[in-house]
Amino acid sequence: MNPTNTSPKLLFGPPPQQGLYDPRYEHDSCGVGFVVNFKGKPSNQIVRQALQVLLNLRHRGACGCEANTGDGAGILLQKPSAFLEKTCADIGIALPPPAEYGVGVIFLSTDPVERYKCEKLFEEIVELEGQRLLGWRTVPTRHASLGATALRSEPMIRQVFIARDPKLPDDAAFERKLYVIRKLAEKGIRYSGIKGGDRFYIASLSFKTVIYKGMLMPTQLEEYFPDLSSPLMQSALALVHSRFSTNTFPSWDRAHPYRYVAHNGEINTLRGNVNWMYARQSMFNSKLFGDDIRKIVPVINEDGSDSAMFDNCLEMLVLAGRNLPHAVMMMIPEPWENDESMSDEKRAFYEYHSCLMEPWDGPASIAFTDGVRIGAVLDRNGLRPSRYYVTKDDLVIMASEVGVLDVPPERVLQKGRLQPGRMFLVDTELGRIVTDEELKNKIAAEKPYRSWLDKNIVKLEDLPEPKLQKAGASA
Questions:
Q1: Which pTM was predicted?
Q2: Rounded distance between C-alpha atoms, residue 442 and residue 326, angstroms
Q3: Structural domains of the chain, ranges and CATH numbers in brackets
Q4: Is 30 a residue of the active site?
Q5: Strands (E), 195-347
Q6: Are 117 and 124 in contact (CB under 8 A)?
Q7: Residues 326-383 pLDDT 10s
């Protein structure tokens, strides 16, 4: 399947910096969409509909000179507990109740010796972090339709199951611990010099969500992953993405969705965003992470694309204690400085957070989810299109264009499009769509941001004049 005389490093990811090419400037322009039952009712129908959305977005993806080698396609789902319970039982793995275990999807070397070494080191990290590894499952794949380029770099894809330490106080603490395990594994395996470690990539590791993706075309995703055809594959939400890598090199790991986002567009401020994140992380402090905060740095994985780096930052902000829309507001603020109609509370929120983080700016439409809430946001200029339908049977369909799913007119309750700087959010816990105004006003009122600004901001013009020394005077 993979030629043994070819370097995995060159096959698995983009080439190193050379000549006029620099991987730091990779961007993409893609198709993105999601389907969700806003009452939170999981079904196989949601999965089927999301796969159909992906097929209808195939023209937004791309392929190389080989018509059967795609730039990337994938789907993010809620953890399909019934499906995993059955498939794991078939191979002798007994899973605990759904909230008591996490599942990871990991890309590994196809060489059995290299793969074994990476898996053993991963297992050691899981044990050192106080969790219990339940077992591994090789994800069935069919690669007959793949082109030669995709085949040469095809990884072995395995699922790993991790039992939750009963001492962890809540679900969020377990999700944070899985995040810490992933960050330690990325540093300890992929960058350690272990042979085959450069092939190691964790597509997802969560107790809430699971991701199926690869260097595929939308038409190949379900064929490549037979799991997706199972009637037991059920979810209340599904996020899909078809990649067009424009000026970038496609690879298996750069397919979307990432752990929290799928992105259409590019982040033009990326270099500054990443540099500021590096500057801040030495001062990180978190009651929720405790001593684990040192284990997650560097937060940004610079081997990723601009979308992956955005995802790195958003994931950290959410797991550190902010809710998902709060973190998105920090990273993609509205144009608040000169908006005379904006309330003082909301203006204070944006001004306060501008002291903590600069905007991740660019022509971008970003769909995001934490496995419970799912939504989308446009950058402040609104240069990427996004449309949504709400149906009378509790369905929300959002995509980078209309017509991604056939919906009879009599079923349509509402149509709309995302507005520049505005957020569209479906909360399956609340069982409804939360409007941009309600959402942001609530978040802005949660803390006394104006009071904090008045008490702590120091303006340059308010500083005393420096004392000037006479020439020749000693310091």
A1: 0.90
A2: 10
A3: 19-78+214-462 (3.60.20.10), 80-207 (3.30.70)
A4: yes
A5: 201-206, 209-214, 237-242, 261-265
A6: no
A7: 999 999 999 898 888 999 999 999 999 999 999 998 878 899 999 999 999 988 887 7
